[in-house]
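Schema walk-through. Below, the input block comes first and the output block second. Nothing else is stored per chain. Lengths vary across the set, and this one has 46 residues.
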Amino acid sequence: MKKRHRIGDRPMLFEIPAIEAQDIDDETEFNITEMLMLLRQEGKLP
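--- output ---
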């Protein structure tokens, strides 16, 4: 019988730094995340 798990039978979870886990729900959060990405590309953020 096929199981109907949403994320699979054996999900693999791992932590990532908060700077890489931005949640974008609206335009303001998109703009903040875009700025963080640009700063990271310029070497001003880890």
